[in-house]
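Section 3.1: Structural characterization of target chains.
Under the original work plan, the team committed to producing a structural model for every single-chain target entering the pipeline before any wet-lab resources were allocated. The record below documents one such target. The sequence was received from the expression subgroup and is listed exactly as submitted; it comprises 315 residues.
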Amino acid sequence: MRRTRWIPGVAVAACVLFAMAAARAAAPVLSFAVIADVQYRDLDAQGTRFYRESLAKLARAVERLNAARPAFVVQLGDLIDGAFVSYDAILPIYDRLKMAHYHALGNHDVAVEAGRQGAVLQRLGLDRLGGGRGYYDFARPGWRFIVLNGDDLSVQAYPAGSPEREASERVLADLRASGAKNATQWNGGLGREQLDWLKRTLAGAFASGQRAIVFCHFPVFPPGDSTLWNDREVIAILEDSPSVVAYFCGHKHEGDYAVKSGIHYVNLKGVVEGEETAYAVVEIYADLLKISGYGREESRTLALSKRPLGRSPCV
């Protein structure tokens, strides 16, 4: 009888392939959903934005998500567009979700009336998270989820003459003087206190052996006219932590995707655009993120690589 020769290298490769196949076939360790730029307003459609239809779009998404039962949902900002009263119609729909559900602040959320960021935080329940600063984090086994406040620096969120408004105006003026594409009043940035908090939170995740996913209304990568004012500084902080695997955002309604230094940057499409909805359910596996897009949102399978450790994470 002829014997088959077993080559050690082939055996190792076969084991690796088998393990990868088994991991993909296994149930996800966790799933969550993301939805962006609902931008409800009691207003007829203008161009490609169907403001009033966002009520029905969100209602259908909530119904499907309640059936899918992800662990939690993150609304990535710009829940409304227009008056503060718009929250009265859209929030009760979002609150029908039967699982934990969170908010990130968008520029339209805080622009409803200058100086009412505190009222917006309270209306969204963010006054009870992270000390009421609009940024906070929460954990699930093996994972840390971080929600940033991209309106920490903003010329729309604060009343004229306030220290916060003046500091934001100086940042924007400097950006404009440098010719930066993202030097627009509808963008925002992270203040120094929040940047330091982000460093500490990521250092804590690393020390706890947790991987991290970051959420914000505003993109930071790839470069463009919609990114945070201090996008480069935020990217440097993310890349300095080997825990970070992905960054989810909205703001840029047509959506986008890029990967840099092992971090996936996923820009969700805006619900308000067109007559079809857009949101996604993300399943976390040991070695990948499986994004199932609904409506106009794209589906993606993103490999999770072990990122090399650069400088030691520190505060």
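The longest helix spans residues 8-25.
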